[in-house]
Write the structure tokens for this entry.
Amino acid sequence: MRILSGIQPSGVLHIGNYFGMMRPAIALQAEGEAFYFIAEYHALTSVRDPQALRENSRRVALDFLACGLDPERAALFRQSDVPQVTELAWILSTVAPMGLLERAHSYKDKLARGMAATVGLFDYPVLMAADILIYDSDIVPIGKDQKQHIEITRDLAVKMNETFGQIFKLPEPRIQAATEVVPGIDGQKMSKSYGNNIDIFGDEKETRKRVMSIVTDSTPVEAPKDSSRSTIFKLYSLVASQNEVAEMRERFQKGGAGYGDFKKQLFEKLWDYFAPMRKRREEILADKTYIDDVLRRGAKRANEVADQVMERVRAAVGL
Ligand code: ADP
Ligand code: TRP
């Protein structure tokens, strides 16, 4: 079974990325052959600073490794080290119906947030389909917001198979039900583009400040509070044990404790949760060649598979 996922190096990774995508991806590396890549071509739709793109790409590799990606089990590579994927994206775009892409939420959302309507932004799901299909992927671990992109991938695979004969496998999304959407400090979906993120490897002072500024309602200290609607409680549930979560739920119901106390408790748990990963990150940073070695080996493995699949595709379409 082949497992594949990608993450854009368009900024610093936050705990929404961790619980929504990285943790499930890391857990899956034990179940099959995992391919994880840094989606730089996708990031080009929003990042226009070459230095930033290069630095972020390295940082994503570092953070992913620090969080537990095991390069002995999973190939980690840069999307741009497998440029064949852009050839496949072109071939897929020749069968991709305009209407299918016009219905994509992420394109409409990005325009609504003020991004310029470029062809690349519109074509983003086709490149993503190529990423997935070029490795004969079976399972794609992603956050819920990416689900439609997998549906588009499947539609394009079916279209190609109907037109040119059986070329592609149909991939399945793997979405973590428990952590469907991680809320940010304002209660909306955590996203770097909303500025409501808590970063995985932020420094202590900044992380505490972000946690302490989580938006709450104005229920007075003594009154009972609704844990099910609280961002503090939702985030705490991700990092605390079942017993600790049950305890906090009770303290919410009982009243007598203020949101400030709950935030402090959340900060402590959150900080402890990522402590082993911070340590691993320091170790990786101390080894100057480690990241480059991992990326080189990952790229080699990814190219082996991509070349085989592209041979099949080229033969099928007549190139
Ligand atoms: P951002 O919204 O910060 O730009 P990305 O779109 O780059 O994040 O998302 C990278 C991965 O992390 C995707 O698989 C996405 O589904 C997941 N992800 C991002 N934010 C969240 C969130 N708040 N909750 C759950 N998963 C998330
Ligand atoms: N679009 C994904 C995101 O923004 C990143 C991505 C690119 C991806 N190609 C992929 C994820 C292929 C899974 C599979 O998060």
Observations:
- The mean pLDDT is 95.
- Residues 7-8, 16-17, 20-21, 142-143, 145-146, 181-182, 189-193 surround adenosine-5'-diphosphate (ligand 1) (CB under 6 Å).
